[in-house]
Amino acid sequence: MIYCGIDWAESHHDVALVDDSGQLLAKRRISDDATGYQSLLDLLAEHGDTEDAPIPVAIETSRGLLVAVLRAGKRQVFAINPMAAARYRDRHSVSRKKSDHGDALVLANVLRTDMHAHRALPNDSDLARAIAVLARAQQDATWNRQQISNQLRSLLREYYPAALDAFSAWTNGLCRPEARGLLKTAPTPARAARLTRTQIQAALKRAGRKRGIEAEADRLREVFRAGWAHQPPLVEDALGKQMLALLVQLDAACTAADDLAKAVEEAFPQHPDADILLSFPGLGVQLGARVLAEIGDDRLRFADARGLKAYAGSSPITRASGKKSSITRRWVKNDRLNHAGYLWAFSAINASPGAKTHYRRRRDDHGDWHAAAQRNLFNRLLGMLYHCLQNRRLFDEHAAFPPSLEVAA
Fold it and tell me: Contacts from 182-188 at CB under 8 Å and sequence distance 24+?
């Protein structure tokens, strides 16, 4: 058996091959281009790599062109956590020496000694991986939009509180096209106070508003003309220019989030697991796509539901030593899936009577705080999702949350 370890970098990668006894068979530095990738494949072929019996590879990343080339065919690629690789390095040397070739050799020996303890990258379909790219990008764009919106809100608090008061009645506030359009028209409170009813109505129409334009224009005009504190004129103009620069970033973030959301809406329903995911209470297209992006569609990825729950961070972890024992939440987990689970459980409480009953029972009977009860509900929903995906069944409210004996009677 031959094992391969690759220490990847931006411009080059170091490769090491070892056999069962740990003897170094070959080492090479390849470039990060098509020539380098072909050189790597040729090196693997020289040492017995075939389509039916490929050499397993360990690397400290799960994405990139190099990983895509290695995953072609039946080859197993193991993405080793860098923290775990650092612990393995200490097994071979206590002097804390480090080199690129040495790291590649450590990764190869990780597979030689503990290949059974690590999990290869899942064999997801191309459609599932494409949905994962779109769903994660949309999630990042949403977070970026909220971050820029918070920055804009903090800036407006310094000199333009009238805008915050005017937009507080709208859902999504500063991210709405009407709010951004009005801020472009009047970047300072002095200019906002001089806006006429006709100008406000025109700004709302340009932003795409269709109903209640006249009433909304009257309300905004009253808010802008109320008595507010002001910065000195020169300072106010400078802050207005800073706000316009930040508004450009917010426009781009809102556009990116909306475009990626549309792309997810087009791609996610094409997946065979979409109907199962959407049958669960609290899961829509965007949130269902995020869940699918993290768990994939490889049915052999998780041995049982407990593995999926541990991966999502919903199941507790026990720490016992001597006479001390504690049960706490998991800190090492898939953060994206855990975040999606928080939103999923939060929505399921109102979408499913059984989920709401389960949540109330955790709060009232077990004394859980809100976060703990919600995490417990997410843990139970994940177990149901694993069962439904394995057996190709839709969610059934009565089977998922059967009524108690007293209620049934």
Answer: 182/207, 182/220, 183/243, 183/244, 183/247, 184/244, 184/247, 186/224, 187/240, 187/241, 187/243, 187/244, 188/159, 188/160, 188/236, 188/237, 188/239, 188/240
